[in-house]
Amino acid sequence: MPQAIPDQSFAPTERTVPTRARERAAYDHETVHAILDAGYLCHLGFVRDGAPVVLPTLYGRVGNRLYVHGSTGSRPLRMSGAAADPGLPVCVTVTHVDGLVLAKSAFHHSVNYRSVVVHGTAYQVTDQTEKTAALDALVDHVLPGRAADSRPANAKELAATAVLRLDLEEVSAKIRAGGPNDEPEDLTLPHWSGVLPVSPVYGAPIPADDLAPGITEPAYLTAR
Predict the structure, then answer these.
(1) Per-residue CA distances from 59 to 56, 168, 198, 217 (Å)
(2) Residue 194 lies in a domain
(3) Helices (DSSP H) in the chain: which residue ranges?
(4) Which string of b and e fits 199-221 if b means at least 16 CB within 10 Å?
(5) Does residue 37 sit within a domain?
(6) Please, is 72 exposed, middle or buried when counting C-beta atoms within 10 Å of its C-beta (0-12, 13-18, 19+)?
(7) How far apart, in whole angstroms, are the C-alpha atoms of residue 171 and residue 41?
(8) CATH classification of the domain holding 70
(9) What is the pLDDT of residue 20?
(10) What is residue 221's predicted lDDT score, i.e. its pLDDT?
(11) Which domain holds residue 112?
């Protein structure tokens, strides 16, 4: 499970202070961690051969550190492990859409969202103890309790798996909530306005075709 951090805040920087809607920005650990812990996928951005690349990938948080999963053959993992380049400058983002904001005018349509942006230098994890703990955190991030209820990676699987470590230092959250911001002169227009909430829904678990008889759904799965 993600580790709790005492009530602190990340220091704003030129890259983490938004140019618009600054009142929506937040830098406290509690807000940032809650947004990260509620997600499954992040988008990992970096520059390769002078061009931007953005990849969706799984992640996990341990304290004030993110771990990003990948193959040892993937581009960012190869770059971060190069002897001449011990770190890879990256930007990691996580976003949740909480609602569709429908205004009287097309211009004021929006979405309610929670997002986190992390800037920093990612490093490939080489210590095997840290790597094993990071992979457990990745599995438990998707479904808490699952790491202890599955076979750990063996030596061959660990050799084929790479993990990036990114310290949470230059970080900001941004949140939009509430209804539409219509112009006063538009309030009498005959158009519906308001918010259509958006939230993830978990379906009933579907057992694997080759699941052995007698294995029941674990409590951490049925409780969702």
Answers:
(1) 10, 13, 23, 25
(2) no
(3) 29-37, 75-80, 128-142, 155-160, 219-222
(4) eeeeeeeeeeeeeeeeeeeeeee
(5) yes
(6) middle
(7) 17
(8) 2.30.110.10
(9) 82
(10) 85
(11) 22-181+214-222
Total structural domains within the chain: 1
In a domain, 55, yes or no: yes
Residue 72 is predicted with a pLDDT of 59
Tokens standing for residue 26: 């937040």
C-alpha span between 223 and 221 (Å, rounded) = 5
Strands 88-102 and 25-26 turn out to be unpaired
Judged by DSSP in three states, 97 sits in: strand
Measured distance CA(201)–CA(140) in Å, rounded: 19
33 lies in a domain? yes
In one letter, which amino acid is 170? E
Instruction: Give the per-residue pLDDT at 21.
Output: 80
Give the CA angle between residues 82, 66, 168 to the nearest 5°. Answer: 100
Q: What is the block-wise mean pLDDT of the chain (224 residues), using blocks of 10 residues?
A: 64 88 90 95 93 94 92 59 69 97 97 97 91 93 92 88 94 96 96 96 91 91 75
Provide the residue type at 80 as one letter: S
